[in-house]
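Researcher: Excuse me, tokens okay?
***
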Amino acid sequence: MTKSILVVDDTRSMRKMVAAVLQTAGYQVEEAGDGVEALALARGRVFDLVVTDQNMPRMDGVSLIRELRSLAAYDPVALLVLSTEVNPELKQKGREAGATGWMAKPFDPQRMLEIVRTFI
């Protein structure tokens, strides 16, 4: 069965770039423009993996991860942050919220696929 990934980023071009990399590798991808939109999608179905930006309007990545972790269906799901933020304190907040990993932008498509394959 095809694995599904939710890509969350307020920058449309970044969302499309990440989605294209993942779709080319055979994953089924849904996109959301911010954490609020992503949470609504995630409540409707369980994705195999979530890749989220940190800095977004309405709901940031760490808040989204906290919300997803409060849903029992998302206990086993890998939640990855893809962000320009490299602040160790913010990364720690991400871990505390339940983030599985943190990737830096700009991202290397091959490295991203290696990380994704580790989790699904």
Remarks:
- The first strand starts at residue 4 and ends at 8.
- The first helix runs from residue 12 to 24.
- DSSP finds five helices and five strands in the chain.
- The chain has a mean pLDDT of 96.
